[in-house]
Specification:
The protein is α/β, with parallel strands linked by helices and 344 residues long. The chain has one domain: Rossmann fold (3-Layer(aba) Sandwich). The chain is 42% helix and 10% strand. The chain is built from 12 helices and 9 strands. It has helices at 7-49, 74-81, 103-110, 133-139, 163-170, 183-197, 204-208, 223-226, 230-237, 251-256, 258-268, 316-337, and strands at 87-88, 93-97, 116-118, 143-144, 149-153, 175-180, 246-250, 280-283, 288-291. Strands 3-5-2-6-7 form a 5-stranded parallel beta sheet. It has a two-stranded antiparallel sheet with strand order 1-4. The radius of gyration is 36 Å and the shape is elongated. The chain starts with 6 loop residues before the first helix and ends in a 7-residue tail after the last helix. Bound molecules: 3'-phosphate-adenosine-5'-phosphate sulfate. The chain crosses the membrane at residues 9-27. This is Sulfotransferase domain-containing protein. 3'-phosphoadenylyl sulfate binds at residues 100-104, 181, 189, 307-311.
Length: 344
Amino acid sequence: MEFAVSKKTLIALIILVTISFYITFLFNSCIVSNISKGIPQLRRNQIVQEPLMHYSTSVRVVSLIEGNETDISPKYKWFREQGLKPERQLPSALIIGVKKGGTRALLEFIRIHPDVRAAGSEVHFFDKNYHKSFQWYRSHMPPTLEGQLTIEKTPSYFITKEAPRRVQMMNPSTKLLVVVRDPVTRAISDYTQAKSKKLDMKPFEELVFVNGTVGSIVDTSWGPIKLGLYYKYLSRWLKFFPLSQLLFISGERLITDPAVELKRVQDFLGLKRVVTERHFYFNTTKGFPCLFKSEGHSAPHCLGKTKGRNHPYVNPTVWQRLRDFYRPFNMRFYQMTGINFGWA
Ligand SMILES: Nc1ncnc2c1ncn2[C@@H]1O[C@H](COP(=O)(O)OS(=O)(=O)O)[C@@H](OP(=O)(O)O)[C@H]1O
């Protein structure tokens, strides 16, 4: 089959093809030129800026305020985003007592250690809330990362009859911390706290004795006095735990030399000695050591008003009677612990 193509049509076809080639060429060279303009730009940025660049990590300021199971704090959300999985664990160490011994101070001091996480408030699991299950108890613990130790303090555990067995059931290797204080000043401190809640309370001197007079016998059924019989409560714990699993902290030395006591605590818990004298300063207004910085506080931090209350004046005769009363019990406690706390 033959096609008759006129000369004119052929010329027009050649011109059309040439123009279309030319347009395509112009278009492509335009794209290439734009790309090549960008490449030196990128290279320039890399070469010129690299040595001058200060690599800065983007720091997100996150709140340290605890969240509960459903409302987890931003700090832990951030950990999760980083692939770290904080999880709540049952405590492996407990501050079990004694009431008014300085347990809050110890907790606040030890929790500035980066490997320690503490339940903020007293959970009262082994005394009041035991029926609520270990799952409930765990839900009250802060989330921890691997290698972090969970600690809780409830001073009434020390005197709760069932607590030693219950703690042993949770974990027989739980480490137990006991802050002890001269039972006489402890009793006055206990009384001061009770009086702050019940203003019409009788004077200390009256409550100490069975007949309300110095001449009668010391009332060992009165809570503030009874609680100072440390040997009695300790013997219960020693039925379930070896002495080596308990650490006794001097409440007095926690005030006069907190760093020394904190060193003992860190060693006992198998922690690096991070909390040192550098973390403390003595606040002369409060009359107690305070922290330069603690969890949730970027500024110097002292314990609250309920810690370090002014005690009422106590008649020196009453004071002496109590000293004499406690002496044999203190001796027994010193023998059991192998430590002379110097109260007698
Ligand atoms: N750094 C520091 N700051 C303030 N208070 C301190 C500190 N270190 C020890 N203490 C003493 O702690 C006593 C309160 O003891 P607790 O925390 O165990 O009391 S409680 O059982 O939890 O109510 C409290 O008793 P009071 O002085 O009777 O208030 C203090 O003497």
